[in-house]
Amino acid sequence: MGDHATITNAGAADQVERTFERIIGSSAALESVLAHVEQVAPTDSTVLIEGETGTGKELIAHAIHNASQRCGRSLIKLNCAAIPLDLLESELFGHEKGAFTGAIAQKIGRFEMADKGTLFLDEVGDIPPALQPKLLRVLQEQEFERLGSGRTHKVDVRLVAATNRNLGKMVARGQFRSDLYYRLNVFPILLPALRERREDIPSLVVHFVEIYSRRMGKPVDSIPRETMAAFQWYAWPGNVRELQNLVERAVILARDSVLPNPLQKKERGPTIPILHRPGGFESSMSWEDSDRALIVETLEQAGWIVGGPRGAAVKLGLKRTTLLAKMRRLGISRPIPQDGTDLLGIAREDGSI
Description:
Elements: H1 13-19, H2 28-40, E1 47-50, H3 57-66, E2 75-79, H4 85-93, H5 110-113, E3 118-122, H6 132-141, E4 143-145, E5 152-154, E6 158-163, H7 167-172, H8 178-184, E7 187-190, H9 201-216, E8 222-224, H10 225-233, H11 239-253, E9 273-276, H12 287-301, H13 312-316, H14 320-330
Parallel strand pairs: 1-6, 1-7, 2-3, 3-6
Antiparallel strand pairs: 4-5, 8-9
Helix pairs in contact: 9-11
């Protein structure tokens, strides 16, 4: 299994590891996020988790709750975008019997359920303007009324909110109350997109392969270089969630315990196992060294042909220009034969290729 990203504190290493056990990766970007989690978790301050869809905002909310003094209490979740607007107020604050048509019984809202615990509001940017003042009040006063009731309920709730929208721009457009935004934005945590922490991709791939191969009873103990390279260099617009889904697809399609490339419409060229060990996976190379070794090996197999249907770019699932840019960045160039000729047999006066 891939290394778990952990931030160690003296006397609390075990607790930290348990808190972050489901968060995979060791990149500087991810460790910065987890350091912020450790700082804010022991407080009761409101946290606003921002990031693209699929970056793992709910996992961070769980980590904040698990590292807080409320960890023995409930963590209540609500996706504000998944609830019809006319029902969202009832979901948040509850209602009394007969409060509206269809209210055939009393209902307890999420704030009441989360009393003494943590409430995680996902996609908080989707809360309609008419409901925003009521949310602001409960955050400021820790009190509310159920729909259809004049009785005020006091609660002790720690709020963690998340959004994939730019609330600051929504405030500027008049789509989100500025006072609510400032109340939510006490301690912002910005999650990096997967493309901004590519060094974590191999660990994530291995982690999800192990999960789905075990779940399906289908052993997968070899990941070809081309497959891992395709995972590392794909843009991942859907972030970790998209990666997880594609690994699941690849495990379904796997044959002979070898993980295929789900990003490729059809298999092209031979596969070269990079990670192969009974009972798990391992890699001793750094991310950059692994990139360099993979590119050089693929170029050698392709006779140092970069483009074309048999070139290294196709084998790696990259555009020719992208591969050339990576070669320049990593300092990779075609070796010069000892006889002074290039690999096409054409002599160069200066010996260059």
